[in-house]
Each structure stands twice: as structure tokens, then as C-alpha cells.
Amino acid sequence: MPALSNPLLQKWFNAFMRLSHRALTPLVQHAADIRLPLRGECRAGQVYLVGAGSGDAELLTLKAARLLMQADAVVYDRLVGDDVLALIPSSSERYYVGKARGHHSVPQAEIGGLMVKLAREGKSVVRLKGGDPAVFARMGEELDALAAAQVAATIVPGITAASAAAACMGIPLTDRGHAQQLRFVTAQLCREDGTPDWQALARKDETLVFYMGLSKVNAICHGLRQAGLPDEWPIMLVANASQSEQQSLVGSLADMPEKLAATPLPSPCLIVVGSVVQRVATTPAALAATNFCSAPQTTP
Ligand SMILES: C[S@@+](CC[C@H](N)C(=O)[O-])C[C@H]1O[C@@H](n2cnc3c(N)ncnc32)[C@H](O)[C@@H]1O
Hints:
Blueprint: H1 7-28, E1 46-51, H2 62-70, E2 73-76, H3 82-85, E3 93-96, H4 108-120, E4 125-129, H5 139-148, E5 152-156, H6 161-168, E6 181-186, H7 198-201, E7 206-211, H8 217-226, E8 234-239, E9 247-252, H9 256-262, E10 269-273, H10 284-289
Parallel strand pairs: 1-4, 1-5, 2-3, 2-4, 6-7
Antiparallel strand pairs: 7-10, 8-9, 8-10
Helix pairs in contact: 4-5
The chain binds S-adenosylmethionine.
S-adenosylmethionine binds next to helix 6, strand 8 and strand 10.
């Protein structure tokens, strides 16, 4: 601070500085000081089908966070992260309907019945699903169950695994020079003797994203090569995308089965096929220089 020769001036200057500091500090100090619009309704007797995003709680929408804090009951799946569940007040009811290790998921009809029962008891209900509720999450069946019981439903989208995985690997899903189309595919059809239309899937101008495909990597690589994609066509696997334990493998259709056998990845895992994968920085130096999301990138 400059020293002023006139003591009165100095006094005024100090007072001015103190006041400006007090006025400006709250604006810049912490993001937490910013007021977020977390007010709104969460209606009794209504079900909210809410996307929890890919696991990183900061990737939750503000609306999802608000509803989780307000709902009387939350019905949730296996892929919802602990940080997200931590937002649910202890006074709210919680119902886990995901698959326990080695067991089947709760049947879909039972989940529908539970949501209808809770709503009819006059509760506000959040049906929380990993990623986006509209992407491979049986939302259509749940909407049908609610409609049949005349229970009002609201949909709150979430960040799907494909968006999270691409962001955390620092690549686009579409790109003018690489892929003008993007396709989300369930790998449940990709058994060795399965029925995917490999000819239709084997395109060089698009990015293919396979959900639920960790056990089908061999079939996917084989099917796409047989249908005409080159052996060196890029493919990447991202497990636990956007979470602290994220792991990835980057390779080609020819070598990925071997890479995966040598370095097995855990579930949940997403498979991305297409030339956008060429943009992944794979050298240790390049990875160290980039920080595409909070998750560390392990590329064996
Ligand atoms: C039943 S689908 C649910 C998809 C979810 N609704 C979404 O929009 O991401 C489950 C599959 O999503 C993918 N998945 C979900 N979360 C993931 C994550 N954090 N990292 C990688 N893959 C994920 C995996 O392929 C997993 O087998």
C-alpha cells in the first residue's frame, strides 16, 4: 500500500481499502458463495426419474441434487456413486433395487410396483439411475408402469457414461475430421452367435459406443473386422469413467482382446470404437501434461 504524506488522506485511503475489500471478497472468495438456484418443488405423489450421472458427484445436475435433498423416498440402482447417495438426508426413505453381487436385479415389475405404492402413500419419490435415465436404463417400462397407475412422472436427464468417458479421456465423440455420426449400442446383442448387424455397424465415419460390453470385447472386435473394418481400427475401453478409480485401455480391433486379457478391467466399462480414439494422448508425458477431468488416467 502506498504511504501518503497527509495523515487525513491516509486515513481515508485505509478506510476505502477496508470497505472495498469487504465488498469484493464475498464475490471472489469461494465458488460456494455463489447462490445456486436450488429452490423448487418436489411434489407429493409424484415420481421423478433422475439421472445420477457417471459417478462423480460434481457431474450431477443442480436439479437432481435438489430433488435428492427434498424427496421423501429414493429408489436407486447399483451404478449410483456413494458421494451422490450422501446427498440424501438421513430422514428420507431409501430403497436399493440394484443387482447384488451374484444375484439378479429386482424384477422390473417390482420396481414399478414400489414406485406406485410410495407415490400413492403421498410421498415424493426420486427414482435414481446411473448416467442418463433414458439411455439403456429401462425408463420406458417404468414410465409405462407409472402411466398405468396414473402416477405423474418427471424426467431429469443425467450425464451418460459415453459423455463422461470421452471427456475424461480428452476426446470428442464426434469430430468434423473423424466421425459425423454417433451410435449408442447395447452389447447385450454382441454374443459370438449374436444378431448385431455388423455390416451396418462397421462404418469409418462414425463413433460406436457399446454399453454393457466388457464380456463381449472379443465378439465386438471379431464382428467389426469380419465386416470390413481394418485390423488397426482404434478402440478404447474406459472403466469407472469419471471416478477416482478410472482405468482405460487404448488399442486396435486386432490387439484389444489380448490387451484386455493381459490387463483385465473392472465393471462398469464402456467401449468406444472409431477414429476419434486416435486423439487419446497415450504417452506418459502427454497424460501428465493433461487434466481432462478429476479422475487419474491409467493406461497400461
Ligand atoms: C445398464 S447401462 C446404464 C447406462 C446409464 N444409464 C448411462 O446413461 O450411462 C450400464 C452400462 O453403462 C456403462 N457405464 C455406466 N457407468 C459407467 C462408468 N462410470 N464408466 C464406464 N461405463 C459406465 C457400462 O457399459 C455399463 O455396463
